[in-house]
Amino acid sequence: AGLQAATDVSSEYEEYLAHQDALLAARMDEPPPPTDDRVLCPLCMRGALELREGWLVVCDRGAADGGGCSLQLDARGHPAPLELIRERMCLLLSGHGERCRGSASCRLPLPHEQAGALLLLACPQCGMDVPVV
């Protein structure tokens, strides 16, 4: 039952991401990205996450690549960091959606928050501000 619930939540997250991709594509006047096993960047919602050098999670639209997304997460010690981010986002967005109609989005921690998390999910409507990883 737990595995099925996790699969259902993961499917809901993928549907949510596909919907967000379609909205962004309409706004940006560009075609939606192909549907595959990529993990959408939770920070910019435009790029896909990549694992570089076996430990650094970055957005493929990163600032170094001219895309402007500043996501860089140290994934040392996590055997499957991209899947961890996908599952965590799925869980957090699903739980938030049950309690609030607001639009939650990810942000990088402020300097005084650095010790607690690498990436946060926040909602201005309900005040949620929780670590993703």
List its salient traits.
about 130 residues, alpha+beta, 3-stranded antiparallel beta sheet, 2 helices, about 15% strand, globular
Structural class computed from helices and strand pairing: alpha+beta
Tell me the major beta sheet: 3 strands, antiparallel
Task: Encode the helix/strand succession as letters.
Answer: HEEEHEEE
Total of DSSP H or I helical runs spanning 4+ residues: 2
Q: Gyration radius, to the nearest Å?
A: 15 Å
| Terminus-to-terminus distance | 25 Å
Poorly predicted residue ranges: none
Number of domains: 1
What is the share of helical residues?
25-40%
Shape: globular
Beta strand %: 15-25%
Major beta sheet, strand line-up: 1-2-3
Q: What is the average per-residue confidence, as pLDDT, rounded to a whole number?
A: 83
Number of strands: 6
What does this entry look like structurally?
- InterPro entries: RIP (IPR028156).
- It comes from Haptolina ericina.
- The strands form two sheets. Strands 1-2-3 form a three-stranded antiparallel beta sheet, with no helix packed on it.
- The protein is of the alpha+beta class and 133 residues long.
- The protein has two helices and six strands, in the order H-E-E-E-H-E-E-E.
- The model has no long low-confidence stretch (mean pLDDT 83).
- Helix 1 packs across helix 2.
- The chain is globular, with a radius of gyration of 15 Å.
- The protein has one domain.
Topology:
Elements: H1 2-28, E1 49-52, E2 56-59, E3 72-74, H2 81-99, E4 105-107, E5 120-122, E6 129-131
Antiparallel strand pairs: 1-2, 2-3, 4-5, 5-6
Helix pairs in contact: 1-2
Protein name: RPA-interacting protein C-terminal domain-containing protein
GO cellular component, one term: nucleus
InterPro entries: RIP (IPR028156)
